[in-house]
Amino acid sequence: MVNVFHQHLDELNDLLVDMARRVGDAVAKAGAALLEVDTAAAEAVVAADDEVNALQFKVDDRIVELMTQYDPVATDLRFVLGAVRISVDLERMGDLAKHVAKSVLLRAPAPVVPESLRADFAAMADAAVRISEKLVGILAERDYLQASQTELDDDELDAIQQRIHEQLPSLGYGPQTAVDAALLARFFERFGDHAVRISHQVVYLVTGDVHLDRS
Amino acid sequence: MVNVFHQHLDELNDLLVDMARRVGDAVAKAGAALLEVDTAAAEAVVAADDEVNALQFKVDDRIVELMTQYDPVATDLRFVLGAVRISVDLERMGDLAKHVAKSVLLRAPAPVVPESLRADFAAMADAAVRISEKLVGILAERDYLQASQTELDDDELDAIQQRIHEQLPSLGYGPQTAVDAALLARFFERFGDHAVRISHQVVYLVTGDVHLDRS
Questions:
Q1: Is A110 within 8 Å of chain B by CB?
Q2: Its family (chains A, B) (predicted)?
C-alpha cells in the first residue's frame, strides 16, 4: 500500500516536471521571439500557456484522489503541500513567459527591446532558460544539492534588471520605450524568483531545512 | 470527530482572515505613505510583512497537523488545498504592498508619484483598500455571493493602470519617473489580481464552480 502511494507521488511529481519543461520551452521561445520580433513564435507561446494551466488543475485533481484513497503520514503530506505550492509557482512562470510574448505582439513589427539593451535582454533570456533547465533536473531527480544552483542565475537576472533600471534614465529613450524595457526586465526577474522559490521548496521537502524565502 | 475537524478548519480559516486583514492594513498604509511621502509609515509596512510571512508558515503547519490527525473527505481536502493557494496569494499581496513602501523609501524625500498622476494613484490605493476589505468579509463569511464584487475593484485597477501606461509617453516625464510610475501601477494592479484569484477560490470551494482564472 505504501509503495503504491509513493508510486502515485512519483506520478504527481512527473506532472510538475512536465509543467517545468513546458514553462522552460515557453520562456526560451518568448526570449527568441523578443530578440527576433517573431510574432508567430510569440503567438505560439500565448497559445501554449493553456496547457500549463490545465496541468495545474490536473495536479489538484490528482492530489485530492491520492488523499482520499490513502492515509498519508506527515512527511508525505508536506510533499503534497509542496507540490501545490510548486504548481502555483510554475503556473506563474508560464504567465510571465506569456507576458514577454504579449509585449512582442503589442509593439510588432517594431522591436520592444531597444538596440543598446539587446545584449542585456539576450543575457536575461539565457539565464531564464538555464534556470528552467536546472529546475527540470532538480524536480525530476529531487536533487536538492543542485537546488542552490538556481540562485546563481537568479542573481544574474537581478543584477541585469538593476543595471537596466539604473541605465534607463540616461539612455535617452522616451518614456514608452523605457517603461516597456523596465516591465520586460521585471518579467524575467520574477521568472527567476519563482524558480528559486521552487528549488527552496525542494530543499525543504528533501531535507526539512527551512530556506524558504518568503520575501 | 467530524465536528472537531470542522472546528479546526474554521481555525485554519481564521488564520487566512488574519492574513487578509494584515495585508489590507499594509496596502492602506503603503498607499498613504506613497501619497504623503511618509517614510516612517513605509518602514512600518516593510517591517510588518514578516508577520504575514510567519502566518503562511503557520497555515502549513496547521494543515499538516490536521491531516495527520483526521481522515478528511474530498470536499474538506479541496478546502485544505484552497487554503494553501489562498495563503500563497495573500503572502504575495503582502509583498506587493511592501514593494510600494520600498519605492517610497528609495526616492524619499522626493515623491515617487508625479503631481499629475496623484489622483490616479490615490484611486488605485483606494481600490486596493476596498478590495482588501471585501476580501476579509468574503473569507470570514465564506460569502461567495460577494466574491464577484472584487472584480469591480479589480477592473478599476486594470483600467487605471492602462490609463497610466497610455498617458505616460505624452506626459513629458523623464524615463526614471515614467518607469517608477509604471512599476507602481503594476504593483497595485497585481494586488487586485491576487484578490480576485482568492475570491474565485472561495466561489470554487463553496459552490464547486470552476471560475478559477489561471490567466
A1: no
A2: Belongs to the PhoU family.
